[in-house]
């Protein structure tokens, strides 16, 4: 037999044998994890629960009395689905009624890697509510925030009745309507605000922060219509000299600060 | 003069190959940019796994096609003579292919792929789920690319090279067919054999073992009514052995290619 053929046959045999043996070993490791045991050699590097659900266009998220929250991402996706991290099991419930997703989160077992990912092709409104007495201002973690991203649509209504940090980024909307009481120290960060042709902000609460930011290279949207009505003690952060400052209606003793 | 390997001869061979195939190299560069455009237009759903799978798949397919180009002369009797009488040893010819398809191709493809993706993200102002550059499955960028893209590529490319040298006709088709057969075989094995090991009550988890592209991870999907549980495990015993087996297999396929070429020349 030719030397080359000997090498090929022995390599293929070794390779196929290993592919099959390693599959069997992996299955044994999986069984160890499944039965609650700890495998000496195997670590789980991904463990998500994915749910395929009925269509919805509106989202209402209720947080119970809790000081922290998992990272929540609502993002544009062709396929609609919700993914929860494994640790969140039994810490959430949801139902879909008509075209609205009602998601309740009762978060007590904190894990830095916890997340809720909601992919949706069309989002009309997002309402966040909290019954918590905790102040959002005391809790800050770059890994944990609520983000709404990737939507290129006609309009979106965001109602924020909670104390957490909500970030709108990489959206391009004809109209954004922002309402809510911001509970205690809630924050909404509208990144790249010139990407919203119409910006209608009407805040009812007392303490909270609205951040309007844009990348330095981004130019102002000349056809942008802005109306910002904020209550007293409310804080607005934006670039010094930005056109939005002239569109703010102060309901009563308001505090404004400029980012330089 | 060393008949097995001479740096001077090898250098001249590299120049010769470049001068004769400059147009093909240029087309290859354009081909390397196309995947990013195609992916952005036709496949708008992105996540990290999808992005990495797309990168590896395009690397393998374009790299595989690029590899078969070097021995395409085998298919034509008159041209195959010119390949055989080329004043270079079999080792130099094999190393020439490795130089262009591994040393040159992999870094250029990686840079062009990520670069064109980055530009398209900027142009269309899309949401950037391309977090590969930060971390992938618990590994930083370089080890992730080496383990999940370069290693499968070298393994895949060594098989394509072997078939390119070995066969006279339909090298690409047979090489890709063999790899597909290997992947399907492993998947069927997992589906039938491993199912019996990981049966959970009445439900049968579906198993997809990514041993050809991703040699170290196994993903399990359990169907419990409408819930799927994805469990990806990395086995710290199997991983290094898989890496060693795949690396040695690739090296042996390269050696086999060398001997096949020598046999043909004789």
In brief, what are we looking at here?
The complex is a heterodimer of chains A (260) and B (266). Helices cover 12% and strands 47% of the residues of chain A.
Task: Please supply descriptive tags for the structure shown above.
heterodimer; A: 260 residues; mainly beta; Pectate Lyase C-like; ten-stranded mixed β-sheet; 1 helix; 47% strand; elongated; B: 266 residues; mainly alpha; three-stranded antiparallel β-sheet; 68% helix
Description:
The complex is a heterodimer of chains A (260) and B (266). Helix content of chain A is 12%, strand content 47%. Chain A has 260 residues and is mostly beta strands. Chain A folds into 2 domains: 1-45, no CATH class; 49-259, Pectate Lyase C-like, CATH 2.160.20. In chain A, a hairpin with a 2-residue loop joins strand 5 (92-97) and strand 6. The radius of gyration of chain A is 24 Å and the shape is elongated. The termini of chain A are far apart. With 266 residues, chain B is mainly α. Chain B has one domain. Chain B is 68% helix and 8% strand. Chain B contains 8 helices and 3 strands, in the order H-H-H-H-H-H-H-E-E-E-H. Chain B has helices at 7-20, 22-42, 48-69, 77-84, 90-124, 141-166, 171-197, 238-265, and strands at 206-209, 217-224, 227-235. In chain B, strands 1-2-3 form a 3-stranded antiparallel sheet. In chain B, a hairpin with a 2-residue loop joins strand 2 (217-224) and strand 3 (227-235). The longest helix of chain B is centred in the middle third of the chain and has 35 residues, at 90-124. Chain B starts with 6 loop residues before the first helix and ends with a helix. The model of chain B is unreliable at 199-216 and 221-228 (pLDDT under 50). Classes of the chains: A mainly beta (260), B mainly alpha (266). The interface between A and B is large, with 49 and 52 residues. Strand 1 of chain A pairs antiparallel with strand 3 of chain B, so a sheet runs across the interface.
Please name the CATH topology of the largest domain in chain A. Pectate Lyase C-like
Distance between the termini of chain B: 20 Å
Interface with most residues: A-B, 49 and 52 residues
How much is the average pLDDT of chain B?
75
Main sheet: strands, sense, barrel of chain B: 3 strands, antiparallel
Low-confidence stretches of chain B: 199-216, 221-228
Shape of chain A: elongated
Strand adjacency order, main sheet of chain A: 1-4-7-3-9-11-13-15-17-19
**Structural class computed from helices and strand pairing of chain A:** mainly beta
Number of domains of chain B: 1
String of helices and strands of chain A:
HEEEEEEEEEEEEEEEEEEE
* Beta strand count of chain A: 19
């Amino acid at each position: 037999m030719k030397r080359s053929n000997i090498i090929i046959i022995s390599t293929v045999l070794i390779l196929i044998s290993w592919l099959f043996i390693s599959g069997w070993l992996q299955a044994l490791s999986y069984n160890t994890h499944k039965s609650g045991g700890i495998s000496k050699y195997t670590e789980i590097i991904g463990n998500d629960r994915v749910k395929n659900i009925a269509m919805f266009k509106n989202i209402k998220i209720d947080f119970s009395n809790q000081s922290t929250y998992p990272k929540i991402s609502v993002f544009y996706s062709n396929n609609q689905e919700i993914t929860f991290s494994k640790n969140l099991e039994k810490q959430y419930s949801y139902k879909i009624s008509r075209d609205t997703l009602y998601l309740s989160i009762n978060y007590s077992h904190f894990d830095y890697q916890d997340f809720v990912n909601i992919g949706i092709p069309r989002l009309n409104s997002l309402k966040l509510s909290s019954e918590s007495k905790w102040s959002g201002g005391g809790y800050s973690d770059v890994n944990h925030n609520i983000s709404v991203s990737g939507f290129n649509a006609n309009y979106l209504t965001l109602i924020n009745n909670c104390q957490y940090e909500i970030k709108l980024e990489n959206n391009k909307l004809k109209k954004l309507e922002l309402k809510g009481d911001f509970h205690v120290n809630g924050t909404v960060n509208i990144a790249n605000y010139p990407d919203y042709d119409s910006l209608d902000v009407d805040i009812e609460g007392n303490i909270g922060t609205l951040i309007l930011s844009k990348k330095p290279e981004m130019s102002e949207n000349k056809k942008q219509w802005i109306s910002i009505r904020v209550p007293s003690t409310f804080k607005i952060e934006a670039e010094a000299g930005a056109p939005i400052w002239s569109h703010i209606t102060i309901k009563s003793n308001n505090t404004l600060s400029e980012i330089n | 003069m060393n008949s097995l390997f001479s740096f001077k001869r090898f250098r001249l061979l590299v120049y010769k190959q470049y001068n004769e195939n400059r147009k093909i190299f240029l087309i290859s560069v354009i081909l390397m940019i196309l995947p990013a455009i195609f992916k952005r237009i036709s496949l708008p759903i992105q996540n990290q796994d999808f992005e990495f799978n797309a990168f590896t798949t395009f690397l393998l397919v374009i790299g595989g096609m690029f590899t078969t180009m070097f021995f395409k002369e085998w298919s034509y009797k008159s041209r195959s003579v010119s390949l055989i009488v080329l004043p270079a040893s079999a080792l130099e010819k094999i190393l020439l292919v490795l130089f262009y398809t591994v040393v040159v191709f992999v870094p250029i493809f990686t840079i062009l792929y990520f670069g064109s993706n980055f530009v398209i993200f900027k142009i269309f102002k899309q949401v950037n789920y391309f977090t590969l550059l930060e971390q992938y499955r618990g590994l930083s960028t370089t080890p992730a690319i080496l383990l999940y893209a370069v290693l499968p590529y070298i393994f895949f490319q060594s098989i394509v090279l072997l078939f390119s040298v070995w066969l006279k006709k339909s090298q690409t088709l047979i090489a890709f067919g063999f790899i597909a057969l290997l992947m399907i075989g492993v998947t069927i094995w997992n589906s039938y054999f491993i199912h019996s090991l990981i049966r959970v009550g009445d439900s049968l988890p579906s198993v997809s073992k990514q041993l050809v592209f991703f040699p170290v991870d196994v993903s399990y999907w359990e169907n419990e009514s409408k819930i799927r549980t994805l469990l990806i495990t990395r086995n710290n015993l199997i991983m290094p052995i898989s890496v060693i087996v795949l690396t040695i297999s690739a090296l042996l396929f390269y050696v086999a290619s060398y001997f096949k070429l020598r046999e043909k020349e004789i």
